Amino acid sequence: MNGWDQDQSFRTLPLYLHNLKKSNYDTWTNVKLDVNGHFEACFVSLGCVLHAFLSCTLPVVFVGSARLRENRVGTMFTAVTVDGNRKPLPVAYGFGVREIVRTWTWWLSMPKDCMRGAREVAFISNVSNCMNSALHDVFPNSYHGYCCENMSMISLLQN
Question: pTM here?
Answer without folding.
Answer: 0.82
